[in-house]
């Protein structure tokens, strides 16, 4: 497999975690979203992913984009360890939390939107994340065990950790979200979350390396 990724892309990080958890080795091709006006806008990358976004994964003779679609494919083709619970109710909760982040928070504060916001981008990003986290905190109080849904790592957790990293980057005060903070801390102790961290990628700038 070949993963097209950017070190700081939270959507790419979700996929890196899934690949790590499932023990799938891959080649990483960095796509710098800032350099050269954004390498994702090159004709070469547009041919690969017409949405001109990372991640994209070449695997088994197909190219997939959209992080949750990629993770679902990996789940179906490499079922262990599972990232979707067997119990239908818990599985629905995992998908709900993943969608809440992947559709309800992240797209509102991604690079393309922030460019449009100009000087207000920091304030805009904070407001989008805080309103999303208020809801998420409430949801997690009902679903969480050690992790987002019970005590098994799931697709919801793969979405949570990168989104918390975004929140910290945009200087969101995490004091109001104790459940999110607790789960995030537990997940960051796991090897798959550590090795895939933005500070440890081949394309991470020297000053941001861990």
TrEMBL record:
Keywords annotated in UniProt: Cytoplasm, Isomerase, Phenylalanine catabolism, Transferase, Tyrosine catabolism
Main location: cytoplasm
Pathway it works in: Amino-acid degradation; L-phenylalanine degradation; acetoacetate and fumarate from L-phenylalanine: step 5/6
GO biological process, one term: L-phenylalanine catabolic process
The UniProt record lists the keyword RNA-binding: no
Coiled coil: none
Family: Belongs to the GST superfamily. Zeta family.
Reactions performed catalytically: RX + glutathione = an S-substituted glutathione + a halide anion + H(+); 4-maleylacetoacetate = 4-fumarylacetoacetate
Location in or out of the cell: Cytoplasm
Protein name: Maleylacetoacetate isomerase
Gene3D superfamilies according to UniProt: 1.20.1050.10, Glutaredoxin (3.40.30.10)
Family matches, as InterPro entries: Glutathione-S-Trfase_C-like, Glutathione-S-Trfase_C_sf, Glutathione_S-Trfase, Glutathione_S-Trfase_N, GST_C, GST_Zeta, GST_Zeta_C, GST_Zeta_N
Domain GST C-terminal span(s) in chain numbering: 87-206
Cofactor(s) recorded in Swiss-Prot or TrEMBL: glutathione
EC number(s) given by UniProt: 2.5.1.18, 5.2.1.2
GO MF, one example: glutathione transferase activity
NCBIfam families xrefs: maiA
Species whose genome carries this gene: Nesospiza acunhae
Record-level GO cellular component terms: mitochondrion
């Amino acid at each position: 497999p070949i993963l097209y990724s950017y070190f700081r892309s939270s959507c790419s990080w979700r996929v890196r975690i899934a690949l790590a958890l499932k023990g799938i080795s891959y080649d990483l091709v960095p796509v710098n979203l800032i350099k050269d006006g954004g390498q994702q806008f090159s004709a070469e990358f547009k041919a690969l992913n017409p949405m001109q976004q990372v991640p994209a994964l070449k695997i088994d003779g197909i190219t997939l984009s959209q992080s949750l679609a990629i993770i679902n494919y990996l789940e179906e083709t490499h079922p262990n360890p599972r990232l979707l619970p067997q119990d239908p109710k818990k599985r629905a909760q995992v998908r709900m939390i993943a969608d809440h982040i992947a559709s309800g928070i992240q797209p509102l504060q991604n690079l393309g939107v922030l460019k449009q916001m100009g000087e207000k981008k920091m304030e805009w990003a904070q407001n989008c994340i805080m309103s999303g986290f208020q809801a998420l905190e409430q949801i997690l109080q009902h679903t969480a065990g050690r992790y987002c849904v019970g005590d098994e790592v799931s697709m919801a957790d793969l979405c949570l950790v990168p989104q918390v990293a975004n929140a910290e980057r945009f200087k969101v005060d995490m004091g109001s979200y104790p459940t999110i903070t607790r789960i995030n801390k537990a997940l960051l102790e796991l090897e798959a979350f550590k090795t895939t961290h933005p500070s440890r990628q081949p394309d991470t700038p020297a000053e941001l390396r861990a």
